[in-house]
Amino acid sequence: SPLPTNSFFQNFVLNKGDQPEYIHPYLIKSSLSSLTLCYPSQFSNSDFINQIFKADLTISISNNTNPNSTHIISSYTDLSVTLDLPSSNLRFFLVRGSPFLTCAVTGGVSLSISTIHDIYQLSSNSSLTKYTINLNNNQTWILYSSSPVNLTHDISTITFSGFSGIIRIAILPNSDPQYETILNRFSSCYPVSGDAVFMEPYCLEYKWEKKGWGDLL
Questions:
Q1: Is the link from the previous residue into 173 a cis peptide, with omega within 30 of 0?
Q2: Which fold does the domain 10-212 belong to in CATH?
Q3: What pTM does this model have?
Q4: What Cα–Cα distance (Å) separates residue 33 from each residue in 36, 67, 73, 214?
Q5: Nearest alpha carbon to residue 63 among 111, 8, 22
Q6: What would the pLDDT profile of 120-176 be if each residue is shown by its tens digit?
Q7: Is 46 exposed, middle or buried (0-12, 13-18, 19+ CB in 10 A)?
Q8: What separation, in Å, do the N-terminal and C-terminal C-alpha atoms of the chain show?
Q9: How far is the CA of 86 from the CAs of 31, 32, 82, in angstroms?
Q10: Rounded to an integer, what distance in angstroms lies between the CA atom of residue 94 and that of residue 76?
Q11: Signal sequence span per UniProt (predicted)?
C-alpha cells in the first residue's frame, strides 16, 4: 500500500532510503543490510539547530550472503515504524520516544555491533542477559537480550553467534546509575506499535501494542 507523505520516517523511503531519520531520542540510519544508531550531539546558532550524526553503533550480521540488500517498511502507525532487513533476519521496532532500540532476531544468526569509537570496556551481569558497553567518547550503552548470550569484542566490534530472540539497546544518559535502574526495570516490555487517538473532544490518548512482560517506560 502507498506510504504517507511528510511522515516522520520519510528518510527511510526517499531516494535510496539511507539518510538518517530522527526517531526520538536517536538518529537512525538504515543502509544496505545494516542499521546504525546515533545519540546525536547538537550544533546550533540563531538560525537553526542541527543534529550531528555519528555511527555510534551499527548492527548487522556476519557473513551476510546478500550484503547489498535494503530494508523494507513492513508496517507503520502514528508513533512507530517497523523496518525489516530480510537478508539479515532482523526486524527493528522503531518507536518514537522510546529510550530503547528493539530488534527481533530470527534464524540463529551471528550478530555484529560495530562502532566508529573504541570500545573501552564490555561487562555483563551474571546471567549474561545484560551487557554494559563503555566507549572512549564517554558514552555508555546497555544491551539487553531475551536469553543468555556470550559477547566477544575487539577494539571496535562486538560479536555473538547463534542468537534468536530480542535484543534491546539504550544509551545511559550521562552514565548515571539512577537511569540504569529505570532501564533495568522496563527492559522486558517493548512496544511494537503506537497510535494517537482522539477518544473524546480535546483529549488525546496514546495506545500501544506491546510484547514481553511488565510495563512500558
A1: no
A2: Beta-galactosidase; Chain A, domain 5 (2.70.98)
A3: 0.92
A4: 10, 5, 13, 32
A5: 111
A6: 999 999 999 999 999 999 999 999 999 999 999 999 999 999 999 999 999 999 888
A7: exposed
A8: 32
A9: 13, 11, 12
A10: 9
A11: none
